[in-house]
Structure formats: structure tokens, C-alpha cells
Design goal:
184 residues, mainly beta, Methylamine Dehydrogenase, Chain H, six-stranded antiparallel β-sheet, 13 strands, 2% helix, 38% strand
Length: 184
């Protein structure tokens, strides 16, 4: 099946050619205070060209990369997996990651089970959300609500990332693979 861009309409709903399972719940647009959360909502009419839907039990979040290289996420944010800077503020429309300290355009994003990892054009990788089993790659099991830099070996650059339930992996510029988390 061909990938269809997601379009954010003026009515603040998400439409997709493959929306048969309606991965968005009929909950409010976002939970929590908009002023308190200070969210950077995705502009109406924007197109997401790469999509990752967290389909594992309990993940209920999705992320994508748009035409300009922005990484956007929406859905459950119980552990900070949307990268908004705080946990528990869930959103139903694509929202830009809090890119504090992140340079480059987004190349790849993968929505795991309660966590997310992304790769940028400068070769750096970042993960956020639930840190169980070391899935965020930062050497801890701590949850992170902001994108946290993956400590890659000297000179290693990532070009893609994939997530699973308890581990994640990145494809390097030299066609190598680096993994982290349970068994990584």
C-alpha cells in the first residue's frame, strides 16, 4: 500500500487514506492546560511524509517527519514519548518536538512502546519517553520527557532508527548497526 501524507485540516482533525482503525480516540484535543503545556502545534495543512505508529499494547502514540524536516508526534504522552518537555500532556494533533539543543532536520522517527527515537541530518540520534531496560540509549532506565542525545561512539553518525518493545537500533552512515536496550 502506498504511503499517504497525513493532512491537518482547519477543523483540527487528522485525515489519512489508511485510517480504517482510527488510531485516534474520541478524547479531547489535548489533556491538560494549553497555556501550561506551551505546545508548538503543527500548522493547518501541513503534510507528514514519513509515519511511525506505535501499535504495541499501551503505546498509543504516533510520530512523523514533515516536508521541512520537522518531527511531529501526537497521542499518549504518559512517559514523555512525544518529546514535549513534560509527561502526561497528551495531544490529538501533530505537535513539534521540543528541539532544545537539537540541530539539523529530522530524517527518521520511530514510535516504540511508550518511547520514541529520532535521527537528524547531522547524524545525531535522540530518544525520549519511558526508559525501561535502557531503551533510550542514555545508559539509564530513567524516563525522559525531552529528546535525549544518544551517546554514539566517536565519529559514528546515524541515518535511520527503529524501535521495538524493549530495544532499539540505528543504521549508521557506514551501513553498520548499533543497538541499545534489552539485549542491545
Amino acid at each position: 500500500m502506498a504511503t499517504q501524507p497525513l493532512l491537518v485540516s482547519d477543523s483540527e482533525s487528522i485525515k489519512s487514506a489508511s485510517d480504517e482503525e482510527n488510531f485516534l480516540s474520541p478524547e479531547p484535543l489535548f489533556s491538560g492546560s494549553m497555556q501550561q503545556a506551551n505546545l508548538d502545534l503543527y500548522p493547518s495543512g501541513g503534510s507528514v511524509i514519513s509515519l511511525s505508529i506505535g501499535t504495541l499494547s499501551g503505546s498509543y502514540h504516533s510520530c512523523g517527519v514533515d516536508l521541512t524536516g520537522e518531527i511531529v508526534c501526537w497521542g499518549s504522552n504518559q512517559y514523555g514519548q512525544l518529546g514535549l518537555g513534560q509527561a502526561s500532556v497528551s495531544v490529538r494533533i501533530p505537535t513539534k518536538l521540543n528541539n532544545v539543543g537539537v540541530t539539523g532536520n529530522g530524517l527518521s522517527v520511530s514510535a516504540g512502546d511508550d518511547y520514541t527515537c529520532a535521527v537528524y541530518s547531522n547524524g545525531e540520534g535522540y530518544c525520549m519517553g519511558a526508559g525501561q531496560y535502557g531503551v533510550l540509549g542514555d545508559g539509564t532506565s530513567d524516563n525522559q520527557a525531552l529528546p535525549t542525545l544518544l551517546p554514539m561512539p566517536n565519529g559514528v553518525q546515524l541515518v535511520d532508527v527503529a524501535t521495538a518493545t524493549l530495544h532499539a537500533g540505528g543504521l549508521t552512515l557506514s551501513n553498520g548497526v548499533d543497538c541499545w536496550g534489552d539485549g542491545g
